[in-house]
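Quick log. Single chain, no ligands specified.
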Amino acid sequence: MTEPALLPRLGWQFVPPETGQEPPLARPVLEAADQFDPGWQHAQTRISRSASRPALAGFAAGLLVAGLGAATLVAGTALQALGGTAVLAGTAGAVAGGRSAWRERRRLDVAIAAERERADAAAASASATLAELQREHAAEVRAWQRRRRVAGRRPAWLEVSLPGGLDRVDVAGGTMAGWSALVTTVAAPLLGAGGEVSVIDLTEAAVAADLASIAGRAGLRPLVWTLPADLPSLDLGPGLAAGDLADVLALAAAAASASHPGPAAEAHGADPAPDVALLERVIAALRPGPPVASVTAALRALAGVGDPRDDVRAGWLSPDELDRVGRLFGRGAADRIVTDRAYQLESRLRWLDALGTGPPPAPRPPVRLRIAALDRRSGMTGNRMLGTYLVAALTHLLRQAEPGDPWAHTICVLGAERLAGDLLDRLTDACSVTRTGLVLAFRSVPPPVRERLGRGSSALAFMRLGNTDEAKAASELIGTEHRFVVGQITDTEGASVTDTWGGSYTSTAGTADSYAESLSVSRTAGGSRGRGRSGPGGFAPFGGFSASASRDSSYSAGDSTSVSLTEGINTGTSWGISLSRAAGVNSSLGTTVQRSRELLVEAEELQRLPPTAMIVSFTGDGGRTVLLADANPAIGLLPEASG
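-> predicted structure:
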């Protein structure tokens, strides 16, 4: 028996109470049925009389001739023979005329009877049709009455889920508080249903801190890496094949050199092929599966930077490896080019020297929530390179994995505008092939990002857009003909969320015995960040992938996990706190579900959307759907919410 497909929840749609209040149903009225028309009968009678006149005249003439002939016979005159002939002829003419007149009369009677029968049948049919319509109308009236009774108590918030067949969600715009709500809303139901969620947080703002907190309280034991501090426990990449590792390192080095990272830079204005070729040759000269520190040590030896004997003593290079690296390229005009390129690559990739250098990972139970986040206290160049490395390495692992169930593993990339466009395209393709769900969140929407929004089988969500030009472009993509109703609780909750959101990650990439207990999320009004370590540990590839193993798509989560996640959202997150405040501002929950205001799709409106509000657009079997949703995960706890 196959498991039901997992579909992500994007939020909740506000439904005003007056929606569904239909006007009374009109009683059925039929057009008047055909009836027997006396005027038609009179007209037919006149026509019949006109047609019978020659026959009646012949009948009368025949009788007259026959009478004269009979009178001649009675008188006994010499014209007796002629009288007999006249009697015979007159009688024959009278009979012929009378027969013709009788036939015309008979035809008229038959026509009138047929018309009466047709009119009676039409009247009977109309009566039966009217009776059937009246029965149907009575049933519809009863259903209408039931709908009116239900409309007064129908849920005010309806769940917004993606239809089947979509494999990506593109989020344009939004605040960090709004993204925190969205990633919790998307991930919590998937985790509760037994799915896996991997979050790559490039925002440096601990966007998934709420999600990590409630997952920890629910017993899911999330793994959180704060980078670069947790690079020693992160082994994502060194196990790749030589060609794949060279490709990943070349992309990371190109990102570190880009003055304007992101899709606008595309390949950062340089051809990565020479870097990939150089790195492939260097990696081939090293031991199988070398750590990045060995690769950078080989690059230093190739570039003549420092004393290579220091790297040999540190264990990054062996004497044989150092000798092979020294013989990779000959002396000549090209030597200077290779030396310069090796130096540039080493200067950028040295940020990754600590990658995977920690002790081997201790055994741990299966992990279904993994978060890799950049630390704000690191350098901008280093974080730019680390983000590219994470996504590129994950993309290569996805390309080697077997397809699984749709959305059973979901990847959320927050701050995707910091990545090159071709890297995003490769990640999107890999997720599509393996049926991995993908959520890409872009803080800004420059033209290269705009060109990628909504490509393929994806849904598009617009959150608050601060830039006027971007808001104008978004309104054109959505369509200015749409009008939405913003619930009062969305506006009120949005006003109170700014002083409740803010957090920091604490690393849980420790040993199996201690990492679950080390999770703690501290909150401050301004969103300051901290970092903690629980000890050395290992890394399980995102989503349970490995280069040679396929994903296990069986689910084992039960109701207890879902309930724990729900309770965590209600009691321990900024969204539960803000929802309680929003409800407290109103006199009762009944007030909060009333209509608040209308929203038109205009640039100004998109610039002042509440933090958790978003306009969602997707195409399903019924065509294109555009609606306004609230991403606050705590709304599902309201009694008016319904899935």
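The chain has a mean pLDDT of 77.
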